[in-house]
């Protein structure tokens, strides 16, 4: 495909052609997954290993895969008060299907402040800052510029509590696996130290810790973003199941009296005669 073609020419080049470097399904025979026979060459992979192989086309050590498993495990909270879990639970309460509800919950996990949005900002900041420091930059200046641009440092501070219960568990695991000495993790701690010693007083939260570990494993921002997609998944199904087991519509019902409304005042509903008159009028207009 030529990079110079565009518009109709680009579309014409691809008419009747389907090229893929990723894989092919041969019905009744076999499946190629990134150049390998899925049922022969890759049959011993566990699901997470296959998942990250599909994203990166690279193999990871058993220690790295162990860490990746736990990155998902340690942040799977079956608490319906969390915004994305609530979507799954409301689907159950309204008797929607489980897949639809959980898919919607995963979709809203791509939030700007939580979830995938902040994940991308966190790994981007760590990689960019490390590069600037290697070129002679100053860490405090990097932090100042980031705060000026975003008014926050992705992965530092937390709205409810200034700390993160997940960090110590993941750090202990990373240490036991020999994965706690990477340059991005050291930078993440240096940023925290700078923030705490300055006037910002923000501790590192899970987003920065996981982004640093992901960067040290070698994930690019896009690979990291795709890897983190199911991070909250295991906490969603329990919320859906519990809401489905309860009487329909009883999750977070809100009495009308609790709604503070400042819009149009109460209006009378059109009666049958007025509705019919209105319909006749519209019919007359449409016949003209």
Number of helices: 13
Distance between the termini: 55 Å
State the helicity in percent bands.
Answer: 40-55%
Strand content: under 5%
Largest sheet: 3 strands, antiparallel
Low-confidence runs of at least 5 consecutive residues = none
Please tell me what the overall shape is.
globular
Question: How does the helix and strand content classify structurally?
Answer: mainly alpha
Structural write-up:
This protein is mostly helical. 53% of the residues lie in helices and 3% in strands. It is built from 13 helices and three strands; from the N terminus they run H-E-E-E-H-H-H-H-H-H-H-H-H-H-H-H. The radius of gyration is 26 Å and the shape is globular. The chain starts with 6 loop residues before the first helix and ends with a helix.
From the structure above, extract its key features.
single chain, 288 residues, mainly alpha, three-stranded antiparallel sheet, 13 helices, 53% helix, globular, acyltransferase activity, acyl groups converted into alkyl on transfer, Citrate_synthase_sf, Citryl-CoA lyase
Write the layout of secondary structure elements.
Layout: H1 7-13, E1 23-26, E2 30-33, E3 36-37, H2 47-56, H3 62-73, H4 83-93, H5 98-107, H6 116-134, H7 139-150, H8 165-176, H9 183-197, H10 206-217, H11 221-227, H12 236-245, H13 272-287
Antiparallel strand pairs: 1-2, 2-3
């Amino acid at each position: 495909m030529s990079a110079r073609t565009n518009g109709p020419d680009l579309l014409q080049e691809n008419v009747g052609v389907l090229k893929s470097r990723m894989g092919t399904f041969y019905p009744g025979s076999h499946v190629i997954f990134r150049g390998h026979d899925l049922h022969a060459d890759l049959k011993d992979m566990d699901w997470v290993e296959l998942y990250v192989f599909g994203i990166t086309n690279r193999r990871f050590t058993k220690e790295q895969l162990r860490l990746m498993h736990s990155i998902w495990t340690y942040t799977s909270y079956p608490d319906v008060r969390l915004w994305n879990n609530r979507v799954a639970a409301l689907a159950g309460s309204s008797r929607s299907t489980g897949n639809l509800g959980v898919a919607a919950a995963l979709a809203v996990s791509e939030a700007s402040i939580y979830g995938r949005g902040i994940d991308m900002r966190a790994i981007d900041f760590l990689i960019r800052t490390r590069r600037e420091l290697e070129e002679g930059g100053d860490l405090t200046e990097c932090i100042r510029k980031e705060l000026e641009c975003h008014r926050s440092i992705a992965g530092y501070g937390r709205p409810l509590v200034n700390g993160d219960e997940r960090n110590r568990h993941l750090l202990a695991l990373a240490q036991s696996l020999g994965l706690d000495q990477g340059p991005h993790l050291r930078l993440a701690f240096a940023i925290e130290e700078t923030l705490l010693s300055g006037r910002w007083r923000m501790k590192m939260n899970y987003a920065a810790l996981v982004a640093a570990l992901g960067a040290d494993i070698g994930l690019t921002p896009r690979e990291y973003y795709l890897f983190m997609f199911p991070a909250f998944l295991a906490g969603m199904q329990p919320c859906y199941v519990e809401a489905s087991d309860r009487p329909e519509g009883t999750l977070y019902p809100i009495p009308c009296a609790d709604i503070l409304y400042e819009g149009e005042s109460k209006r009378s509903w059109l009666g049958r005669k007025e509705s019919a008159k209105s319909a006749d009028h519209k019919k007359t207009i449409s016949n003209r």
